[in-house]
Amino acid sequence: MLTANLLAKKRDGNALRDDEIRFLIEGFCDGRVADYQMSAFAMAVCVNGMSERETATLTRAMLQSGDLLPREVSGQTPRVDKHSTGGLGDKVSLILAPLLAACDVHVPMVSGRGLGLTGGTLDKLEAIPGFRTDLSEQASAAVLRQVGAFIISASERIAPADRRLYALRDVTGTVESIPLITSSILSKKLAANLDALVMDVKVGGAAFMKTLDDARALARSIENVGRAAGLPTRVLISDMDQPLGKAIGNAIEVNEAVAILESQPSDPALQGVRELTVRLCASLLTRVGVATDLDDATQRLGRALDDGSAMERFQAMVAAQGGRWTGELDVAPGRAVQAEQDGYVRHLDCQRIGSTLVSLGGGRRKLGDSIDPAVGIRMQVRIGDRVERGQPVLELHCHASRQNEYLEGLRKAVEITEDPVPPRPLFP
Ligand code: URA
To answer: Which of 28, 46, 65, 382 could be stapled to 33 by a disulfide with Cβ–Cβ 3.0 to 4.6 Å?
Structure first.
């Protein structure tokens, strides 16, 4: 087979056969297919798409480029996980993993780092002093046995083809492709040897998928390809036109997640985080038969949150992964940004809010950039809220000497209008 012929076939909008897709991925891993050829392949897929059969084959080929996590450690206990397509303030994994562990399932979560606007669960956890995400296979199996959940980074051996392809996609404008996103996510999740997966597909200004139609198309693709690969997969679509919860940043998000684990939130923004987390968990518990139906699952999850058992699992997971939990993480000093006029919040500019956080060092521009865990932003308003001139709309947390630089930009991120605006539903 000639790589150039396969690239031309995809360029011209034709479907590749299974053996042709396997040839490309195997060749990419052993050096017969060069990075520039793989970049051309990614662009051809981005422009012309792939059928579900092609996407499933690509997913399996990327999975087979690496190893599977051992299943034996879980015995008869169901293994489940959640993945989100990412967005601002998404701290759901920090709550979900210990909450599910408290409901008698195992959560072997292999997670990612933040890049660009999207925060990463690993960066958030590493805001906890001592917390280690680079556990060996034996060490992570021991944590799973003892606690029921771990959250670690992917080793070099988890879907290495995806790791390399993603690095190329990131710099060649080929991230936003439904078949490539589907195969990238599922190849890594299949490697965890799960019994069920739930996906949180985000839609809105701060998400990969900007429209509901695109989010639904990605949801269908992930569900169908997951099922075809033998992994029961359900998808929820949730709003990302405004940050999830109030906190955006690393330490500040851990504190918010812990607040939700510790007590029933009275703040509607935090209630939204709890509701989304519980819905994702409930879908998994029913799928693996630990709960009889969604009502049963929701009640059970509510009890685990309210009686402190989910929080106990969180503390046990942190300790087992080397972290020292002292009750609350330090966050840089805060400075309020005030509303410029009376009115209603019409729009929150997530791009501006996210890039401010990156500029402050709370996120990365490129792989390998270091993170300042203490910087963050706390939203004080949501879309549809009534505000009065001078009222704090958000709080910027960073070193006092840098605050003035960002205040005006952040003020502009909160658009206020005179006419009432309906609140945005969390589930569009
Ligand atoms: N997350 C992934 O792991 N891969 C993608 O392609 C997009 C989001």
So the answer is: 28
Active site residue 188: yes
Distance in angstroms between the alpha carbons of the first and the last residue of the chain: 46
Q: Which residue's alpha carbon is nearest to atom 6 within ligand 1?
A: 181
* Ligand 1 centroid, distance to 85 Cα (angstroms): 7
Q: What is the rounded average pLDDT of the residues 99-127? A: 90
**Directed axis angle between helix 35-48 and helix 18-30, to 10°?**
150
* Residue minimizing CA distance to atom 7 of ligand 1: 181
The CATH classification of domain 334-417, taken from the options 3.30.230.10, 3.90.1170.30, 3.90.1150.10, 3.40.50.300: 3.90.1170.30
Q: Where are the domains of the chain?
A: 3-49, 72-320, 334-417
Please identify which of the residues 60, 79, 83, 106 carries the catalytic annotation: 83
- The DSSP-derived string for 95-106 is HHHHHHHTTT-B
d(CA 165, CA 158): 13
CB atoms under 10 Å from CB of 138, counted, come to: 9
Q: Does domain 72-320 have CATH number 3.40.1030.10?
A: yes
Bridge-based pairing of strands 196-203 and 392-397 is unpaired
Count of beta carbons in the 10 Å neighbourhood of residue 367: 11
Tell me what ipTM this predicted complex has.
Answer: 0.96
Q: Would you call 169 a catalytic residue per the annotation?
A: yes
Distance of alpha carbon 30 from alpha carbon 10, whole angstroms = 21
Reported as half-sphere exposure (CB side, CA atoms, 13 A), residue 103 has a value of: 32
Instruction: Spell out which residues line ligand 1, taking CB within 6 angstroms.
Output: 85, 166, 175, 180-181, 184-185
Residue closest to 61 by CA, chosen among 190, 170, 166: 190
Q: Which residues pair with 343 in a beta bridge?
A: 387
Across the chain, mean pLDDT equals 95
Clarify whether 210 is annotated catalytic: no
Cα separation, 237 vs 201, in Å, equals: 5
**109, amino acid identity:** M
- Give, using CA atoms, the residue closest to atom 2 of ligand 1: 185
Ligand 1 atom, smallest distance to 166 CA: 6
Distance, CA 73 to ligand 1 centroid (Å)? 27
Q: Which CATH code for domain 3-49? A: 1.20.970.10
What is the value of pTM for the model shown?
Answer: 0.95
pLDDT (tens digit per residue) in 30-72: 999 999 999 999 999 999 999 999 999 999 999 999 999 999 9
Q: Give 57 Cα–ligand 1 centroid separation in angstroms.
A: 17
Known catalytic residue: 132?
Answer: no
